[in-house]
Amino acid sequence: CYRENILKTAKALVEDTKLLVSGAASSQDKLAQAAQSSANTITQLAEVVKLGAASLGSDDPETQVVLINAIKDVAKALSDLIGATKGAASKPADDPSMYQLKGAAKVMVTNVTSLLKTVKAVEDEATRGTRALEATIEYIKQELTVFQSSEVPEKTSSPEESIRMTKGITMATAKAVAAGNSCRQEDVIATANLSRKAVADMLTSCKQASYHPDVSEEVRERALRFGTECTLGYLELLEHVLLV
């Protein structure tokens, strides 16, 4: 029942995505309507996903987290898409903002597809861990793209904060190795959830610290390079766990 509702609402959201993209080239009224429609649809989708997560029961909290993370990714992608649509409104087809809009729409569809795959996998205990890991790998890749962009963070943090966040990577790495050894679904799901947070926190703090007023351009470039290398190394580790 929940799966059918999620599928139906997700399809409606994909249609809203198409309207948002086409709305950038049309009137402000149509764009506003498309934005409002997508906001309503994502609210409905969040509700049915939460009901689906609740139906799993409290004895499987890690899988509930996987589902909630999947809808959070869709909501974030929609927010970015609406922002990109506003930026591209009334611009010519070859304007850079139009390419940004197409990229945001692609991420949106990718995350909706990922949500649907996750919902399907939840019904099959044998594939839950694999799917959770695949979703985390996709999420980390998206976060790395944001990290590598020229966008300056809204706030800065101290280098000490960045160092503190690397401890999460160390813990997640140990968990990933253990999950690769045990091959138990629950271990793999827990690894996926922990890895997602550890890498995202590290990337955020690394970028914020690299833009601290006391940091030179040379140090900033090195910090950003090492942040990327750390993430790529961790992605390789998760790919190995997935293979195992």
TrEMBL record:
GO molecular function annotations of the record: actin filament binding; integrin binding
Family matches, as Pfam families: Talin_IBS2B
GO cellular component: a single term: plasma membrane
Keywords tagged on the record: Cytoplasm
Subcellular location, principal: cytoplasm
Compartment list: Cytoplasm
Domain of life, per lineage: Eukaryota
Residue stretches making up the Talin IBS2B domain: 8-119, 129-241
Any one GO BP annotation for this protein: cell-cell adhesion
Entry protein name: TLN2 protein
